[in-house]
Amino acid sequence: MSSKVNPYSVSGKVNYDKLVSEFGVKNITPDVLKEIEILAGEVHPYLRRGIFFAYRDLKKVLNEYKKGNKFFLYTGRAPSGPIHLGHVSVWLFMKWLQEKFDVDIWFQFPDEEKFLFKSDSSWDEIQHWLYENMLDVIALGFDPKKTHFLINTKHAGIMYPEAVKVAKKITFSSIKAAFGFNESNNIGSIFYTAMQTVPVFLPNVLENKKRPCLIPLGIDQDVHFRLSRDVVEKLGYEKPALIHAKFMPPLSGVEGKMSSSESDKAILMTDSPKEVARKINKYAFSGGRDTVEEHRKHGGNIDVDIACQWLKYFEFDDEKLKKIYDNYSSGKLLSGEVKKILIDKINDFLAGHQKRRKEAEKLIDKFIYKN
User: Fold this and answer.
1) Residues 122-133: pLDDT tens digits?
2) What is the reported pTM?
């Protein structure tokens, strides 16, 4: 099956080397990791393990930081359903960046996107998920003094004037080429890229500063910011730097990426311990052998085993992870035992998250940007 990677759909077995070549991005090399280690004091496991693997202009941002010019971080979430672990992996990395580099995060909630792009999404439903999604983001533990929520419809007064300037620089032919749009697309979806571009430079406009922007993102979102990078430069701003992540695979196997719309193939942030165990035991693709005897003799395949792949995101101790991999590939550990390790790790993580989520309602007002 051939792979498909765009902002709205990811399917098949993704060839990341091919994407690096096609998109014109650069691989994160050991020298880049060393530079990050010098500045941050450590290297995040997601960097060491190649989960974040490519970039645009990251070195420029690091060089500016050395000169004392802090960058700011930008990410977003188009609310349309519950948050799952695949979303959270990028944001956990951003939280680490915020803490290590002492920088602000501008978090965009484009509450019009899914309403425009999904024919079955009602406005009331989107607003429900906007609220729920904000609770999950807050529960991750971002610093409220350095984290600013931008809601497209709420903050239209400050975003729309800048979006108009962006829109004037983007032709319809560029949008069509980038996203495959045609005459049947509604005009709101065509304008959406202009709104998504605004936070790339808006913090500098609001605060009269000149700081680089760094965007951690799944590589499927790169196309949005290829357009943005060209446009903001025409408007007199620096191109945003990007650092790209691989996809956290669904429970069903290593092809594609996790999706909230297929809830049995994803772990949601609100899932109970029992539900987590049920999903992983029932649906997590195994790299084990057909029988225990064969598995003991030949071992399992860590490259296709979802429990092994997901442990990259939750077991931060490299030695412990290596031991699990070695024991599984040698047959010492069975598939069910690796799944149990993963279940315990995820449930520990979710227990803390869900406790903080209950307190998040009291904090929302501190995160929403006051214009």
Assistant:
1) 999 999 999 999
2) 0.94
